[in-house]
Amino acid sequence: MVRRDEIRPGEVAVEPPAATDAGLVFIGRIRTPWTDRMDCPRQGRRDGPVCRIELFAPWDGGLDGLERYASIEVLYWLDRSRRDLLRQSPKSDGTSRGTFSLRSPVRPNPIGTSLVTLVGIAGGVVSVRGLDCLDGTPLIDLKPDRCGFTPLAPRQPGDDDVDTGRAGVPPA
Amino acid sequence: MVRRDEIRPGEVAVEPPAATDAGLVFIGRIRTPWTDRMDCPRQGRRDGPVCRIELFAPWDGGLDGLERYASIEVLYWLDRSRRDLLRQSPKSDGTSRGTFSLRSPVRPNPIGTSLVTLVGIAGGVVSVRGLDCLDGTPLIDLKPDRCGFTPLAPRQPGDDDVDTGRAGVPPA
């Protein structure tokens, strides 16, 4: 989040295809203490300030049960990010690396993911610690942290698929 | 992934708003051994079969540096999932819980996230273990696992924001 919109020495931009393969609906808004990209933490911390995740109707009706989990995964839309960089230079020093080797907000689909600590849920608002995004960031999903979640659905055949030395991948 | 498209007793559907707040571009395709939703694992396992993540051009040019990470976060689009359920019944037993308390593929923005083990990268293809999605699933992002990633960018003021007892959240 240290970038305005410049392209730095060593970075590579492409003319990206239109982003029309699927559509998102914003299901809420995230309230944090950070109102300028230059002030955001580079990564959230579990002892950071409490932030509020405000769900829009009707999605506030889907929170029941989330209070069982101490740790929650949050997906949000980094709506100020450019989407066209293939290589980036986080240090602005002329060296660059591929976008997919970074957790930079600049990526073809600017989705941020954070693991946060649940503080409380009340009235369609989920309070958490561990976020690093700008105040007003659109929310796209909440899920229990996979580490604390045991599937409730009945077992499936694929649950037992482990690597057995056979080719596990269908031919291209 | 155990659902065809039925609504089960105890579940609650809504008329969802149009999903037009933001657009995604599919940046690749995931090849797995599972060709039917009824066969997929409920969650990926790190000793599972090797799967191939095939990047489309020009995005295959953004992989440089990803080989440094043993563990990678994968985001994909669960393109067969309904998006309108607020409450779901994973056990089909008449009881239900809010969508956001489940890791079900059925959610307003059907994005799956997995942490996978890197096996290798060659020619725009990333081979990994730990996925649980259908063969052909569209790819939307790859990132280093946050646990193994140290930000390269210069420090930001927010990096030091910890909870100090002050109100950490701006007024609504």
UniProtKB/TrEMBL annotation, chains A, B:
Domain TsaA-like intervals: 24-154
Pfam families with a match to the protein in the record: TrmO_N
Highest taxon listed in the record's lineage: Bacteria
Organism encoding this protein: Lichenibacterium minor
Cited InterPro entries: TrmO-like_N (IPR023370), YaeB-like (IPR040372), YaeB-like_sf (IPR036413), YaeB_N_sf (IPR036414)
The protein, known as: tRNA (N6-threonylcarbamoyladenosine(37)-N6)-methyltransferase TrmO
Gene: tsaA
Alphabetized UniProt keyword annotations: Methyltransferase, S-adenosyl-L-methionine, Transferase
NCBIfam families per record: tRNA_TsaA
GO terms, molecular function: methyltransferase activity
Segments passing through the bilayer: none
Family: Belongs to the tRNA methyltransferase O family.
Listed SUPFAM superfamilies: YaeB-like
Biological processes per GO annotation: methylation
Coiled-coil region(s): none
Sequence segments annotated as region (Disordered): 150-172
